[in-house]
Hints:
The protein has 1 helix and no strands. It has one domain. The protein is mainly α. The chain has one helix spanning 2-25.
Amino acid sequence: xxxKKIIVGEKSGHLHHxxxxxxxxx
Length: 26
């Protein structure tokens, strides 16, 4: 189960970066 948790964390990080990038674009 540990590996799955790491994957979720990485996905969350990517999503966060995308949101910040969109805000900068505006």
